[in-house]
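Hi R.,

Quick one: here's the M18 family aminopeptidase sequence you asked about.
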Amino acid sequence: MSKKNKTLKQLISFLNASPTPFHAVQQMTSRLVESGYQILNEEDSWQLEAGGRYAVTRNDSSIIAWRMPEDRSLSESGFRMIGAHTDSPCLRVKPNPEIHKHGYYQLGVEVYGGVLLAPWFDRDLSLAGRVSFVNGEGELTSALINFETPMAVIPSLAIHLDREANSGRAINAQTFLPPLLGQSDKKPDFRELLKTQLEKSGESVSRVLDYELSLYDTQSAALIGLEQEFIASARLDNLLSCFMGLDALLESDSGEGVLLVCSDHEEVGSMSAAGAQGPMLEQLLERLQPEAENRSKMLARSMMISADNAHGIHPNFADKHDANHGPILNKGPVIKINANQRYATSDITSSKFRMLAVVDNVPVQEFVVRSDMGCGSTIGPITSAEIGVKTLDIGVPQLAMHSIRELAGSEDLVNTIRVFSRFFQLRTV
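And here's the predicted structure, written out as tokens:
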């Protein structure tokens, strides 16, 4: 099996096993441990060694993994950082979700992030996330849960009952989206359903208290296209960047300080204890370099690549792009630029990326939003402002961003990992 095919197989496995940020962090943690990384607890005192490999999580949904420099201090080496986010737009289950109408058992759901809602209809859905409960010993604990099999669906209304459906139908998030779970003569108890599922996985459960659960599409990630040049999957934004950053981290043999941070809650603004606008990364850097002057020197010698997928030009809607800045799938990673600092790219950071890409003949594209349209943002400007590190915003081009099933290029995956690996090996940034 070629290296590319092996990487694609690993990616598909990662995507399928990561229906929520909790599961994504669990998968990433497992790979780090297999590669010799030590998982630290924020509550403990740390004894770090030169060249040591470490990782720490917060809320089970954000993770930072890093390697200490081997022959220089952190203030001399700085960090080569890659940042991404673990969350994706989805439908979250409400705290009191039970709906019983006309003999059907449904769940109340809440929209998380900027979801493209129409593709969620008529899909085979399941549930996954984290559940907090009282165990058999009376202790508060939590566990991840994944029903895996299709158990829910949001049926479309037949066109016979809505003749204008193809002319444009506004989707009411409150009334259109509650999925069907089955049929019942009485209102079921959703927490009892969770209790049963937890017990099947070996947990001792006295009472389910609360949860953070999401619906997800059970269809497997896949390679599609005449030459299998496309990756089709849920949550490519932004688990694809998490995977590429982790793969580059594990492959690189740099003796310099390298760091990967994958934060939760980007799709809803990043303002949380585990989000990029929260203190997680800053607090870690303070622990690693407590003295203020040396920490400032460390950050001055550091650089962050914020990796979040970019808008590829859609052949059916090409007028939605600036004519000179329409990235194409499989034509290389995209440097994202915005004059109003919605992206943190500068000419210095973009030039460094271009120089790295040339080494492996990796093509590079650019994205600038049309001047008459608003621009999205990433963790790049947030991280740059929070810790004062020079930053570049890049992304793999994709189509159908924020849909339940997105599309990216398989060649872009391997090319971007190559550039990330070069970045991690830099002596100076």
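The mean pLDDT is 96.

Cheers,
M.
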